[in-house]
Amino acid sequence: MGLVLFPGDDDVTSPDISWSYSGFNIFREWLAQAEGFTLSDMYGFGGDRSWSSVSTTLEPLLHHPDDDGPDLTPAQCAAMLPRLEAILGQQQHDGSDPVLQRRIDDTRRLVTVMRFCLGKDVGLVFG
């Protein structure tokens, strides 16, 4: 069992991205690290640090329940895309680190799904 992020367009052929729950947590930990904080320090992830103490456009993704809660809106996706693309641009990767390659691939796929959501003006569903 795992988690799938997909456009809320009711079209099973639309792009999606999936992880195991632990894989999604690892991905979010990596994104939080790129944003300069540790996810496990945050309220809701085992820590007591308030989300208001960090400034990141990725908060809607990082602070979202795994498979519950509201869809991410097209506007939220639009706000997160530049930062996700910047993170991709910062990665110096020669292909020798398979873990980093997985994070990069996941980020690219997430960007693809978010762009699709914007193009269709639909939310990003956690399911």
Description:
The chain is mainly alpha-helical. The protein contains 4 helices and 3 strands, in the order ββααααβ. It has helices at 21-34, 59-62, 74-90, 98-120, and strands at residues 2-7, 17-20, 124-126. A 3-stranded antiparallel sheet has the order 2-1-3. Helix 3 packs antiparallel against helix 4. The longest helix is centred in the C-terminal third of the chain and has 23 residues, at 98-120. The model has no long low-confidence stretch (mean pLDDT 94).
Count of runs of 4 or more consecutive helical residues: 4
Q: What is the terminal separation in angstroms?
A: 11 Å
What's the helical proportion of residues?
40-55%
**Series of secondary-structure elements, N-terminal to C-terminal:** EEHHHHE
Into which percentage range does the β-strand content fall? 5-15%
Question: What is the element layout, followed by pairings?
Answer:
Elements: E1 2-7, E2 17-20, H1 21-34, H2 59-62, H3 74-90, H4 98-120, E3 124-126
Antiparallel strand pairs: 1-2, 1-3
Task: Give a quick rundown of the structure.
Helices cover 46% and strands 10% of the residues. The protein is built from four helices and three strands. The chain has helices at residues 21-34, 59-62, 74-90, 98-120, and strands at residues 2-7, 17-20, 124-126.
